[in-house]
């Protein structure tokens, strides 16, 4: 049974992806900074099967990522799939964005993907197999006002994906891909409540994005390493 780690899986896209992957028969590692959200997702997966592990982890901190990987390997052995989904957003003009807010956004959205990918790659290289799906955004291809930190992090996710895909090309049977959703009706959008409630009806649902992530993982002939998938 293959093992997947989904970061930011306490809610939103990550939670839905974790549940769908459990339904596909995978060992699932639920990872979030909020214990209550972890417990809720783990309980939902236990209704499907018992092969689930919940780990409270700030994936922007290397020591915590190392602990996450050790706990995963101890329970399930190998690590086959990583979904780098964790992320936050700050809606402010650049002059109003504090250095702390900038650092937290880049750390949560981009540094976390670097740390988690670096930690799982030795398992994938050893097994000559693996899949990494990075969750970027339409804001990773087009800049938007009052989202400079978020856009910078998501543009960075695009570059990280392409670079890593080249690094593993042709030798390790490892795919590294990125998905770029449009606006999704998740709690992250509520950082701008007026905009969220005015536009919620036209936004993607988390389940739709999660279903595409699962499709990317399983359909190896259609989704190749280095690809960027818009939804």
Could you tell me the mean pLDDT?
Answer: 93
Strand content: 15-25%
Task: Tell me the helix content.
Answer: 40-55%
Helical segment tally? 7
Helix and strand sequence: EHEHEHEHEHEHHE
Approximate shape:
globular
Low-confidence stretches: none
Number of strands: 7
Counting helices, strands and paired strands, the structural category is alpha/beta
For the largest beta sheet, what order do the strands appear in spatially? Answer: 3-2-1-4-5-6-7
Q: Any idea what the radius of gyration is?
A: 17 Å
Layout: helices, strands, pairs:
Blueprint: E1 3-7, H1 12-23, E2 27-32, H2 35-46, E3 52-56, H3 62-76, E4 81-84, H4 99-127, E5 130-135, H5 148-167, E6 174-180, H6 193-199, H7 206-218, E7 228-230
Helix pairs in contact: 1-7, 3-4, 4-5
Give a written overview of the molecule.
With 231 residues, the protein is α/β, with parallel strands linked by helices. Helix content is 47%, strand content 16%. The chain contains 7 helices and 7 strands, in the order E-H-E-H-E-H-E-H-E-H-E-H-H-E. Strands 3-2-1-4-5-6-7 form a 7-stranded parallel beta sheet, with helices on both faces. Strand 1, helix 1 and strand 2 form a beta-alpha-beta unit. Helix 3 packs parallel to helix 4. The longest helix has 29 residues. The protein is globular, with a radius of gyration of 17 Å. The model has no long low-confidence stretch (mean pLDDT 93).
Summarize the entry for a quick read.
With 231 residues, the protein is of the alpha/beta class. It has helices at residues 12-23, 35-46, 62-76, 99-127, 148-167, 193-199, 206-218; strands at residues 3-7, 27-32, 52-56, 81-84, 130-135, 174-180, 228-230.
């Amino acid at each position: 049974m293959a093992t997947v780690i989904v970061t930011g899986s306490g809610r939103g896209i990550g939670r839905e992806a974790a549940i769908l992957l459990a339904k596909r028969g995978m060992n699932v590692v639920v990872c979030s900074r909020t214990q209550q959200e972890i417990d809720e997702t783990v309980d939902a997966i236990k209704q499907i099967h018992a092969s689930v592990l919940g780990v409270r982890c700030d994936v922007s901190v290397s020591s915590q990522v190392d602990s996450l990987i050790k706990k995963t390997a101890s329970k399930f052995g190998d690590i086959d799939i990583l979904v780098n989904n964790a992320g936050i957003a700050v809606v402010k003009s650049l002059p109003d964005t504090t250095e702390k807010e900038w650092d937290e956004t880049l750390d949560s959205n981009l540094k976390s993907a670097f740390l988690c990918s670096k930690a799982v790659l030795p398992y994938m290289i050893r097994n000559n197999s693996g899949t990494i799906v990075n969750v970027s955004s339409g804001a990773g291809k087009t800049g938007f006002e009052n989202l400079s930190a978020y856009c910078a992090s998501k543009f960075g996710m695009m570059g990280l994906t392409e670079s890593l895909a080249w690094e593993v090309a042709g030798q390790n049977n490892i795919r590294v891909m990125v998905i770029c959703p449009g606006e999704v009706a998740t709690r992250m959008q509520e950082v701008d409540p007026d905009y969220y409630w005015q536009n919620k009806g036209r936004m993607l649902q988390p389940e739709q994005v999660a279903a595409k992530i699962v499709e990317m993982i399983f359909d190896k002939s259609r989704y190749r390493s280095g690809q960027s998938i818009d939804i």
